[in-house]
Amino acid sequence: MAAVDSELAPEETRSTAYAGKIFREIQEVIDDTKGEAGALIRVLQQAQGLIGYLPAPVIKTISRDLKVPLSEVYGIISFYHFFSTVPKGRHVIQVCMGTSCYVKGGQRILDTLRKEWDLEPEGITADGRFSLETVRCLGCCGLSPVMAVGSDVHGKVKASRLNDILDLYK
Ligand code: FES
User: Fold this and answer.
1) CATH 3.40.30.10, applies to 91-166
2) Among the atoms of ligand 1, which is closest to the Cα of residue 106?
């Protein structure tokens, strides 16, 4: 088994036994898949499954130990929508900023989330309850402005009613 560079452990969890366990598990997947076709994607999936997202130190470890250039690893991560380099909340909010939604108030929704929930695009609330993404079209433009919380789609969203919607998700 290759050694894991402790400098690569995430700052917030470096000293915990839990972080060590996670890194050992990722290392085992790396060792098991080295040289196999599709090894990179498999390791990234396992790492994200364990941590919930792909922190930079983990990406560097994977790049180093699979001997895949860092730029290539990031290329794969950005190509596949299901990979994320930022932590996700328990509930992921997607605000549509496609043309129809933008014109009908998408920006007001984002402004309200920023002001009242301290939530920026690609950000997460301090309690981990919500994270926020912007998307180009959720496929129901007739309901603009649209946002989704997890798999629930909310249409004709008024910024003034945002709290009522988010209160549904604990
Ligand atoms: S532009 Fe928002 S749902 Fe299509």
Assistant:
1) yes
2) 2
